[in-house]
């Protein structure tokens, strides 16, 4: 152990042992992966799934409640919950019933159903914005928000905070390298960096400098960054200043609550009394049935309103898709919000998040480790640093990728699934005390084996 980080040689030794055990216990997943290689790049339906995990992919047989079951018969208490998209737990009865009924009646009409009115109204009640539109995923909700903002402001640029993730679309797939922007991945246009600005989270001076050019159409941010760098909380007063600075610059403000919606009905926007022009949501809002949505103020929505219908001469904003807002997604969202994502269910997952934080913090304190446990309602987790990071650079410095990778496979071998740092560990509304205790026990065992407990 040196400072906050365990001996790398010990981490590597444990990783090799755990990887071997992981592979040996999962022959059927191996067989399926081999079969997949002939028909899909990397042997998986989305090639990047291979690079998300540094162990061979796990093939899944089924899931129920908080539990995931692989094709080799191993069961996992799931704290990744499909990168937060299954916060409702797997197969909640009201959603199964509503979706089955809707599929039997027709999965798609390209015409609205009554459920869409209920869902838009309920999102409005939760997030405090009156008018809503629907897509199939949060990525496309954010894409449409940008197009609406460009159309309204006549400006092209979009501003994000370093460490962000808002989906897989061009404007957002750029990152800071030193003080300049570069494309995050291959396949993007050569000028992809030209319409995007990225500034450090919690850095109001840089934010103001970037907005002062009055070229920025919209700032999109999560209220607390939950993604590529774990969890970054805003400084006190950050959101008030963000609102004031964007207003002064004539820039719109969008909160992406795709992950943070798990903290309670209405997400952090409601909890912290935020006043955005847009809110975007997705993932668990329809219990994992594809649905993205964005809410907006009446002023913003005016750009979409076409009183003259088809013959209205106003230019049409580039929004929409054939399957967006389809009846199955709407039926799922209605059932999820009315019967699964209830106030009581959020309270349950928050209690478990606290239980998890208490357990992790107990292990860390007993081992005398200079690590921080965060408490984020249903979500908890450990930063390998004495204080929580405030921005992406600080978070990356303390990340300790080899230790994170070891943790993942170590927990998986003990029936706990915690796959992506940006999503957890998060307790779904279906999680139990036993799930949380299993997580804490496995984490404690790991700390003990690292030779620091
Ligand atoms: C904050 C946030 N926004 C948007 C997205 C994109 O969601 P999807 O991949 O469902 O489009 C994600 C995905 O992780 C996210 O975390």
TrEMBL record:
<dbReference type="Pfam" id="PF00202">
    <property type="entry name" value="Aminotran_3"/>
</dbReference>
<dbReference type="InterPro" id="IPR005814">
    <property type="entry name" value="Aminotrans_3"/>
</dbReference>
<dbReference type="InterPro" id="IPR015421">
    <property type="entry name" value="PyrdxlP-dep_Trfase_major"/>
</dbReference>
<dbReference type="InterPro" id="IPR015424">
    <property type="entry name" value="PyrdxlP-dep_Trfase"/>
</dbReference>
<protein>
    <submittedName>
        <fullName>Transaminase</fullName>
    </submittedName>
</protein>
<dbReference type="InterPro" id="IPR015422">
    <property type="entry name" value="PyrdxlP-dep_Trfase_small"/>
</dbReference>
<keyword id="KW-0663">Pyridoxal phosphate</keyword>
<comment type="similarity">
    <text>Belongs to the class-III pyridoxal-phosphate-dependent aminotransferase family.</text>
</comment>
